[in-house]
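Chain A, query sequence.
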Amino acid sequence: MHGLSFDLDFGFGGYDSQKPLEVDLEQVLDDIEWSEHVVLTTPMWWGGLPAKLKGLFDRAFLPGRTFNTRETDWMGMPKPMLFGRTGRVIMTSDTPGWFMRWIYHNAMLRQLRDQILGFVGIKPARFTHFSGASHPKPGMVKRWIAEVQGYGAVAA
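Chain A, predicted structure.
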């Protein structure tokens, strides 16, 4: 993600006068459209998504490419266009898991699962949260790596 080059600003024109997608955003969308399973790794940053990741969703997940506003479900929600894909989000933070659940009500998880990935059809999206990321205890990173490798082995 850090190597992607694109303008984070969606602009003021709305969907009617969209900026053309940069090459990196086109490649991300091509990769997602090609995939069967999408894996996203991200830190929690100030309680939410890092700005560049949010900018990627804002710029790339557009009507006509990731959801269809001309076809809606019984609630009037646009039809997802990336259905048939599953997802895994691996999130790091310093916030303990119990705090994420009880105090923050898993807000970032719900945003990603329901309002972003689910909205465009990537579901189910499973979540893995590793906390204490800034100062992990000895051996913790090795355990995290082993856990993620296990997910990859099951999916292969």
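Helices lie at 23-34, 51-60, 97-102, 107-120, 140-155. Residues 14 and 28 are 21 Å apart (CA to CA).
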